[in-house]
Amino acid sequence: MRESDRNLDSLTAVDAAHLQPLSEPEAFAPGANDAATSHSAVFFHAHHADPPLEATTAGQIATPAIISIDETATIPPSGSTLLRDRVLVWLQHNVPEARLQHILRVERMAVELAEQHQVNRDQAAQAGLMHDLAKFFKPQRLLDIAQAERLDLDPVDLANPHLLHADVGAIVARDEFAIHDAAVLEAIRNHTLGRPGMSALSCIVFLADSLEPGRGDTPELATLRQLSHQDLHHAVWQTCEDSLRYLIAHSRLIHPRMILTRNWAMSLARQPS
Known about the structure:
Structural class: mainly alpha
Shape: globular
Largest sheet: none
Distance between the termini: 24 Å
Order of helices and strands: HHHHHHHHHHH
Radius of gyration: 17 Å
Low-confidence stretches: 9-73
């Protein structure tokens, strides 16, 4: 589980042994309200690294070439071709190209895991495609939306509002794209910190976000990817363990929900089959 996207977006995070920081910009401002946040303290969103990506300068909008990239060719439409195209166009104008490519890889891996674990592949594709809708919202915008929705905020959320991008992303999916499938919204909401009792669909998106191929090619990642195809709860547990090791080693704040997710997944993984 990830409490800060230490490698996809943070410019201040320190390397771990099998991690490399990325070169995405500290600010992305295609519109008046959207930007990346500087989050040097708390938000461990993806505990594994993307390889270095080409930096996007502030104010630059991602190019519209994403719909034709090869790795999306076998992915089923998220509900409908029209809806998926609408989401892709929105993403092109609201996240940098490097982040958009990550989103597409998450979508694809979520479909693969759904097929492996007999979970609805259309729901997995839809949640994967929309999981980072609020990734580059400014901190105050995230707080404003969360407070307007009367979300329960932990002090760690207030210390680093970027943690709220998952919860706010589900709100954007609902309001901007009329997504009312509770399972899809929950998967978007849970992709960063997880949640005790979360569904198999939520586990899949949580793991796809962490383990998609762009995160790197290390023995640790290979082991977790193999585990994700075998046992979702065991994979969530070990992913949380990896995140916690990083956060503790770097004296980072840890969100309580991260601990709860780890304990829940571990207890299920340890149950006799």
